[in-house]
Amino acid sequence: MEGYESHTYGDAFADVYDDWYRDLSDVTALVELITEFSPGHNLCELGVGTGRLAIPLSASGFDVTGVDSSSAMLDRLRSADTDSRISVVTGDMVDDMPAGPFDVVLIGFNTLFNLESHARQQECLHKCSNALTDGGVLVVEGLAPPSQPDDATVDDVSVKSMTTTNVVLSISRHHSADQLVEGQFVEFTEEHGVRLRPWSIRYSSVEQLDAMASASGLSVLARFNDASRSQFDPATGRHLTMYCRSK
User: Which fold has domain 8-144+205-245?
Assistant: First the structure.
């Protein structure tokens, strides 16, 4: 998408993210899962955003470092993190990722897919592997994309929400050959008129993720549909995968 940069999503969604995505995942279950598998309490979250995950993880006893390229998102996190317990890094989650060591590196839902190419995603997993302690885990939440013909381009327009004073339309385009889905949420309100909220993801299949992880010295520790630990089923359209450093 022309003009789209690493901070575009965060800057566009910061003011509505917590309202729109509060039910994106079971945060309590995720905290419990990470606590069970982690060998220690040092955790880095890439794409930390408003702190939807980082703040409850910090409250449960983790020493959290959060990385995000969006100042708007991090401003929200700082306002919510009233005890200033989370260490914040403003920057790219590949180029500016702290060296660690960390017991856990967390990449929340679809955050890895904000990286625009296979090479950048591979580099991110390599950085994560190098930053892990012995026995440390990498947690990746993502979508499991539906199969499409390799040359398909699928457009979609739908209503995300509608009230008497607010309408949000979802407009997206899926380029199968490039494994790219990009779109806009177009918000109409009586008070503020029209607001555009662009997004773009370059997805990878679980098989591609596993291959990238293996190339980075990581192997699959566990894979679920989500933090509730239900059995992985590609038909659900999502997954939570935990990787550990290969022996």
Answer: Rossmann fold (3.40.50)
Using N-to-C axis directions, what is the helix angle for 206-215 and 118-131, rounded to 10°? 50
- Residue owning tokens 């990385």: 67
The dihedral formed by the CA atoms of 44, 45, 49 and 53, expressed in degrees to the nearest 10: -110
pTM over 0.90: yes
Q: Where are the domains of the chain?
A: 8-144+205-245, 153-201
Question: Residue 21 CB: number of other CB atoms within 10 A?
Answer: 14
For 153-201, the fitting CATH number among 2.20.25.570, 2.60.40.2470, 1.20.120.1730, 1.10.3720.10 is 2.20.25.570
pLDDT surpassing 70 at residue 122: yes
Which amino acid would we find at residue 68?
D
Percent of all residues in the chain with a pLDDT value above 90, rounded to a whole number: 85
Helices assigned H by DSSP within the chain: 8-13, 17-20, 27-37, 54-59, 71-80, 118-131, 206-215
For 244, the enclosing helix (H) or strand (E) is strand 238-245
Q: Is 121 exposed, middle or buried (0-12, 13-18, 19+ CB in 10 A)?
A: buried
CB 36 within 8 A of CB 221: no
